Amino acid sequence: MPKKEKVITWVLRLITYSIVVIIGTILFNIVKNGLPVLSWEFLSQPPRRSGAEGGILPAIIGTIYLVSGAIIVAIPLGMATSIYLTEYASQDRFNRYVRLSIITLAGVPSIVFGLFGLGLFVIFFGFGASILSGSLTLAFMILPTIIVSSEEALRAVPLSLREGSLALGATRWQTIYKNVLPYALPGMFTGSILGVGRAAGETAPILLTAAAFFLPKLPTSIFDQVMALPYHLYILATQHPEVHKVLPKQYGTALVLVLLVLTFNLTAIFLRGHFRKKYKW
Amino acid sequence: MVNETIKLESKNLNFYYGETQALFNINLQIPKNRVTALIGPSGCGKSTFLRMYNRMNDIIPGTHHKGSILIDSDDIYLEKGSMDIVSLRKKVGMVFQKSNPFPKSIWENIAYGPKIHGIKDNTKLEAIVEKSLRGSALWEEVSDRLHQNAFGLSGGQQQRLCIARALAVEPEILLMDEPASALDPKSTTRIENLIRELRENYTIVIVTHNMQQAARISYYTAFFYEGKLIEFGETEKIFTKPDQQQTEDYITGRFG
Ligand SMILES: Nc1ncnc2c1ncn2[C@@H]1O[C@H](COP(=O)(O)OP(=O)(O)O)[C@@H](O)[C@H]1O
Ligand SMILES: [Mg+2]
Asked: Can you give the CATH number for the domain in which A78 is found?
């Protein structure tokens, strides 16, 4: 290898390694400080004294509710949209703009979605600050990601399979349903789960639409406010009267949140690997 | 073409990819239960012409045509004609240049078409699967692994599976676009033998760039050049004493 090549390889390698080291340090720090806090009590008890004591059960439950709500709304909508865009929509100028808008939406800061949710769901529809408003807001936030990754999965199915099916007399929908979707679904789910992981960790969208500062009892309806892990963390770290005393609780909460998101992402990676083996062309 | 029944007919056919014209005023009558070969240099419009007969070009955005295509004297592009696109494609099967088995089991590949057309009864489907695989000379090789993925088959077997899949919906016409161009000589021979068997019962239109192949299997040959039909006639005549200079140049390998 020429000398210049070697230098470039090493520079790139160094950059990569330092990123891994930085992320590793953050994770290590969270695990090291969070692990001692993690206990059955921490996971199963409501907080006491504004979170200085007790556990984080309502925040875990709240996040699970919010994320589940977002999944229920966003995955069907996102998949339907991506099917329309790839399989039905013509490639004219209007649809190119629709696609461009969706990609742009994927990059909109989450606080903007929060404000949008506040205006539309909380105030205009009158859902108030609630699981419903929060879930819908999160759904809209992750929708672009789901659409874009689902489109990619659909496009990865070769045209020749569609042609083969159509040539046998199948209608367009039969072709999509029987000979495109089954192969694209794993990819669609993978992308969606990654979006969901993002929804679990965001504070800004739920800040104004769903999250309660301190609510030790569990929600009973979708119109209730909830606690949520990222928001709880934010409060403990910046708004709590005894910020330093609750430091261990912050690490514990952060660790639980990281584990939750990690679970989502590992599921996605596992699924992708599993289905890749199944369908190859 | 004495005493032949005309199965397929194109009249004053012009075809356009957007602004670019790919077919120029083609008039051709293809006889029933014969093998007709379409030959000509690459890019001359053979595939485009073939795909007119099952309206496969419809799915390419921005294309349009002028003129008409008749099957058994019915205009297949007529909006209110007797033939909708589903029954057209049931009647006109297609085998593609690059074999395209579905990533499903062999059984599911064959049963796909019949199921789409409403056959649910499992015994009936079993019978169709066997008949189609026998029809494409594949039964002996795969009867013990019908439920394995079709991707496990060799290239030649995959292409014969695609032929079986087309046969399963009981078409009258088979369109084949260079079905053996990606196969080794041995598999090619098997496909050619198969076509010889099928020609008893089907009207076959086959695109090929291999002139020996055209000579071996076809009864009629149409020579295309730059989107135009230059000459059509009995294969023997086309290959021995063609009327057109261009045909002769191509046959004798002076271009293409
Ligand atoms: N999808 C398409 N869009 C635009 N032009 C095309 C398309 N398919 C084929 N063509 C053009 O039409 C002409 C005929 O192509 P084709 O029918 O594939 O020829 P052949 O099968 O004889 O090689 C070529 O010039 C080719 O570039
Ligand atoms: Mg071609």
From this structure: 1.10.3720.10
Report the number of distinct structural domains present in chain A: 1
Distance CA B67, CA B21 (A): 13
Q: Is residue A18 part of a domain?
A: no
- What backbone torsions phi and psi does residue A45 show, to the nearest 5 degrees? -110, 150
Please provide residue A53's backbone torsions phi and psi, each rounded to the nearest 5 degrees: -130, 175
Which residue range(s) make up the domain with A148? 38-278
pLDDT tens, position by position, A214-250: 887 888 888 988 999 999 999 888 888 887 888 888 9
Can you tell me the distance from the alpha carbon of A27 to that of A20, in angstroms, rounded to the nearest whole number? Answer: 10
Residue A28 lies in a domain: no
Question: What's the gap in Å between the CA of B160 and the closest CA on chain A?
Answer: 14
Q: Which of B14, B16, B17, when mutated, tests ligand 1's pocket best, judged by the most ligand atoms within 8 Å of its CB?
A: B17
* Chain B CA closest to residue A91: B61
Ligand nearest to the CA of B41: 1
Contact A161 B93 (CB under 8 A): no
Query: Is residue A20 in a domain?
Result: no
The pTM assigned to this predicted structure is: 0.86
